[in-house]
Design goal:
Elements lengths: L6 E2 L3 H8 E3 L6 E3 L5 E6 L14 E5 L4 E5 L15 E5 L4 E7 L6 E5 L12 E6 L6 E7 L10 E7 L9 E7 L4 E7 L4 E6 L10 E2 L16 E3 L2 E5 L5 E4 L5 E5 L5 E9 L2 E9 L2 E7 L5 E6 L17 E6 L5 E6 L13 E3 L5 E3 L12 E5 L2 E5 L11 E4 L27 E5 L4 E8 L4 E10 L7
Parallel strand pairs: 1-7, 6-11
Antiparallel strand pairs: 2-3, 4-7, 5-6, 8-9, 8-10, 10-11, 12-34, 13-14, 14-15, 15-16, 17-18, 18-19, 19-20, 21-22, 22-23, 23-24, 25-26, 26-27, 27-28, 29-30, 30-31, 32-33, 33-34
């Protein structure tokens, strides 16, 4: 038999009570008959960081119809458990040992408790302990959990190489909750079609042409489509607003020759926000509670008198996200302002009326991005600068105050996913997963569907 050594302790403080109790009638010392497991700890090891953090408990395991010793919170990814200094404690003991399967499958080894050698817990292991009075023997299987995947890794997967063979620059993918469908809209100068997916982007129906009211005489601005109160809303290039309860049949929600709904921003609470146009060069922020009645709320913000720091009206990215304290916060960044210049200021607001610019220079002047919040970070997909270069992916861990390229060890766009602008991003909060659909770059227009999920998000499932 192989004889390794291992730390062992009889729970010295409890030994007095459990191991040797005084019989009041005879005055004799009575040894304990209880061999029950109390604890297992791993000693700190400079070459294996975090090993000492393993917390073991007794848990019922249905496969064995017995309790096992296990750490429910797995040790970090790649933690070595082949050279462990282990300390066992029992309510009483007269002798304890481990039995392990051999690595080559040729049998088992018995390991007796001694002083200082390490144990390889990658092998199937059972601990045996006999009570102090020698009358009871108890065994426990030991399971040491180590994360088998890197928790901080973002895993990408292509779901569909193309929704349509004829994609257009004017496109939008959106999740429509009332029907539990992904919808992908593609619009040309002559028609707009919608494709549906009931399995979250894997398969899609053939495109169905939208049924639009007669008031619609201009192309739809699909990029800014918004879901609000179980309705979909979209504007057209003539400043009219339309809504639909199924994504196919549309009606006019707002049409006013004097005040146009230029672009939609986002829904927030009981309001849908947008950019209104009241003259050739007069824009303002407005909101509606029902889609039909709009009211002025604030002038477009401007940072001092700089022309390239004005609030954008086109090609921006907008988002309502949770701040660090849990309150909703509105953000609009990038895009083109009313003078056609790229905006290089990130604007934030808590009420939609009072807007503040964040620290200058946090982002270059970009347009055509997709913005979302994921894992307490803001992620910015795509964004074209003045040189035509597309920034593939940026992240912010401080609510937009600064941005950086993610560590490529953990999060990088796949080679089959070229950097692009105007992609749609959908957050599935129930599955803690992101979906990206379509977009364009200098080479082509896309209608592919990708999904990405942070490995750590699986651990809470």
């Amino acid at each position: 038999m192989k004889r390794n050594k291992i730390y062992w302790i009889g729970l010295s403080l409890l030994t007095v009570f459990f191991v040797s109790c005084l019989d009041k009638e005879t005055g004799e010392i009575k040894l304990s008959s209880d061999p029950t497991f109390v604890s297992l700890t791993f000693a700190e090891n400079d070459s294996i960081p975090g090993l000492e953090d393993a917390a073991f408990t007794l848990e019922y395991e249905g496969h064995y119809n017995d309790s096992i010793i296990v750490n429910l919170d797995s040790l970090p990814h790649l933690t070595r458990i082949d050279s462990v200094y282990a300390t066992f404690t029992f309510k009483s003991t007269s002798g304890s040992y481990l039995v392990q399967d051999k690595a080559d499958g040729s049998g088992q080894d018995t390991i007796y408790f001694a002083s200082s050698d390490t144990i390889d817990f990658t092998l199937p292991t059972v601990v045996y302990n006999r009570s102090s009075d020698g009358t009871a023997l108890r065994s426990y299987r030991i399971k040491v959990n180590v994360h088998q995947v890197e928790p901080e890794l973002y895993v990408w997967k292509e779901l569909n190489p193309q929704v349509t063979t004829y994609p257009e620059i004017n496109q939008k993918a959106i999740y429509f909750e009332p029907q539990d469908l992904f919808l992908f809209y593609v619009g040309s100068d002559t028609e707009t079609k919608v494709y549906e997916s009931a399995d979250k982007g894997v398969t899609w129906t053939a495109g169905t042409r939208l049924n639009l009211p007669a008031e619609n005489t201009a192309s739809l601005k699909l990029r800014y489509m918004a879901a609000y109160k179980n309705q979909l809303y979209v504007t057209d290039n003539a400043g009219k607003l339309y809504r639909s309860g199924d994504g196919k049949m549309w009606e006019t929600a707002y049409a006013n020759a004097d005040t146009l709904i230029y672009n939609l921003l986002f829904p927030q609470g009981d309001a849908l926000w947008g950019i209104m146009r009241t003259g050739n060069d007069a824009f303002c922020l407005g909101m509606t509670a029902d889609g039909s009645h709009w009211e002025y709320k604030a002038d477009l913000p401007q940072y001092w008198n700089d022309a390239d720091r004005m609030f954008p009206i086109d090609d921006y990215a907008s988002l309502v996200f949770k701040s660090r304290v849990g309150n909703p916060k509105m953000m609009v960044l990038g895009g083109l302002n009313k003078r056609g210049l790229r905006n290089r200021t990130t604007w934030v607001s808590e009420n939609g009326v009072a807007w503040e610019p964040l620290r200058d220079g946090a982002l270059p002047a970009l347009q055509g991005m997709a913005l979302t919040q994921y894992d307490d970070k803001l992620l910015l997909f795509g964004g074209m600068g003045s040189s035509g270069y597309v920034t593939p992916l940026l992240e912010s861990k401080n609510e937009g105050l600064s941005w950086s390229v993610p560590d490529s060890t953990y999060n990088v766009l796949p080679e089959k996913y070229p950097a692009r602008t105007y992609q749609s991003v959908i957050l599935d909060e129930s599955d803690k997963r992101l979906y990206l659909v379509g977009g364009k770059n200098m080479e082509r227009i896309y209608s592919d569907v990708w999904t990405v999920k942070l490995n750590r998000m699986y651990f809470g499932d």
